[in-house]
Amino acid sequence: MAGRNxxxxxxxxxxxxxxxxxxxxGLAEAISRFRPVEIREITLQVRQRLLKSLLRYxxxxxxxxxxxxxxxxxxxxxxxxxxxxxxxxxxxxxxxNALLAQLYGVPNLYSGTLKKYPAQCYTRIYTVTxxxxxxxxxxxxxxxPLWLTETMPVVEADAPWLMLIGGDGAGYRFTDADWEQLADxxxxxxxxxxxxxxxxxSRRTGIEVEQLLHNRIAPDLLDEAVYYGQTPRPVxxxxxxxxxxxxxxxxxxxxxxxxxxxxxxxxxxTPQQSNPDQNDALALEGYVASGLICxxxxxxxxxxxxAQRTQAEIPDVAQMIWESLRDVLPSPGAADEKS
Length: 339
Prior knowledge:
Blueprint: E1 8-14, H1 18-32, E2 37-46, H2 49-58, H3 66-73, E3 74-76, E4 85-89, H4 94-104, E5 108-111, E6 124-127, E7 136-138, E8 161-164, E9 172-173, H5 176-193, E10 197-200, H6 207-216, E11 222-226, H7 236-242, E12 245-249, H8 253-261, E13 266-270, E14 273-274, H9 278-289, E15 294-297, H10 317-325, H11 334-338
Parallel strand pairs: 1-2, 1-4, 4-5, 5-6, 6-7, 8-10, 8-12, 10-11, 12-13, 13-15
Antiparallel strand pairs: 2-3, 9-14
Helix pairs in contact: 1-10, 3-4, 5-6
């Protein structure tokens, strides 16, 4: 068993967004598969937004001012112990990630697009679409905590399908007509294919939409429904384990990635007003090209015909992450020698 001095001490910066934290944990836990780690999650808040924006231009020249800049721009409480590695995701963490790497002289990893921050201020940048810099590692799926990659159980042939419902955001806007088409499509495709549904909404869906869905979807086609705005309950992982396939509204790449990692067939649903940004659009096109998803307009959901198919093999993203950075990590015991 490795001794304590062999653990890699990771500082994981969080802006409080669950999706960003999930990606950061995915990077840290990928490393944990191959060597011992100690992970410290550090929450930060931006206190000077204008100065944070200026960091895009200051970072390449800010090494001697890293400490003062960090505490001027952010509210952050740092551990006494030195880190071996800095990890973060989310635009509000970009500056702090780079400043801490400068302050402590350690490598740093970032998951997500750089939002015009200088690429040279990060050791590795993980994305699902190319960013045009040498230190960019393009992954087939975003990093997630290891428990989300665990193999799902085999289900019976008559197992239900899962419907994951989001709402407006990320370039997608759902009208009342879209929600009516979704409800009617659930009813009609359920009857056409002889299938039942598990269903959950999200914090983006809203009470009025939930009421429309509740009133319009045939209750005898629902094995179980969880309406987030009324009785919130974290059921996505449980429902993924019970279903034979997944339909998910296309407004959340995080929700889509979690569905893909389950190993179930995944179909994304698009409203008429669908305008994802270039990065998200390229990611979705990549998932289609890899056989990880099919895309379906809501307007034809009522004509959907289920055909049994095998999901494409899920890539070992954790292995890819490890292979991409193992040569830049400090050797075991380096933190003890440094301190």
